[in-house]
Amino acid sequence: MHALSSQERAAVLKANYDALMAAEPKLRARERATRLQVSEAELVAAQCGVEAKALNGTPQDIFLELASLGEVMVLSRNDWCVHERHGRYEEIHAKGPVGMVLGKDIDLRMFFSHWKHAFAVTENSRLSVQFFDAEGTAIHKVYITEKSDSAAYDALVQKLAAEQTPAIQIEAYPADSTPTHCEDPAALRSHWLSLTDTHSFFPMLKQHKVTRLGALKAAGADLAQVVAIDAVETMLLGAAELQVPIMCFVSNRGMVQIHSGPIQKLLRTGPWFNILDPMFNLHLDTSAISECWVVRKLTSDGWVTSLEVYTATGELMVQFFGARRPGVPELPEWCKLLSNLCATSLAG
Question: Number of C-alpha atoms within 13 angstroms, CB side, residue 73?
């Protein structure tokens, strides 16, 4: 296809897409792209199964317009976990390379240096704004619902839509070369024990030149210990039964999307374990889980405990904490849930 013009490549891609959908109509967007060996953004730009308009402006400019849409459904995911949350964009901070949304329902951390492509998309009459990174992988999607301001969506598209939606250029990210083995576990452990804020954890990893999973393996079992492969399911069932509110973090290169609150309806469908509540849905591919870790960090509010889930290649799938705000200690019920997963005692 490289010898073809952009229009011819788009036509071939559409034909291949139509054939795939005729054979397997239930595939999700990311699965369709994988099957066709292209990025999801390329499918959108080529109008494969959708009507799409490229949006002009910086990602920050576009993001600031989202507050006008009212209640929406927002979706952020990685290859193994999908996080969907209903609510409004409130308290948006999106002026620099790192942004935040700190609303009651929608809680986000944006890393705009990775946001490269944005589209207004119509698929089977469903309206959305979709953002993609340099590789064409979806970062964040915003879906209009029956509770949204559809007139505001139309105004956003009219204001920002480009005259044409050209074929996009895909740029591959370099492979992560961060060492997976910690050279000085004692120094790492000392640094870890000196932390007073969970936000200092990533800078600590950078300083010690080690991956997140490498740090867990070096820290000591009282700070990080591997637990059963089904620990997520066990924890979620316990949290739902006892109504212990949780925080659920799902991230990709450009986004961290967070849910805080209790959970109720849990359902397994094949390899997927799901939370299916009115305002929050989570879909976790448990077949991709290689390791689960219970992790303890000391903060100015006391110990904070998390459950972290990793793939066989050491990539973080999802994180869970007990629901809490700065200045408030961790819920003892949450700590007990996670302690019960552990074979040996945790710090503190």
Answer: 18
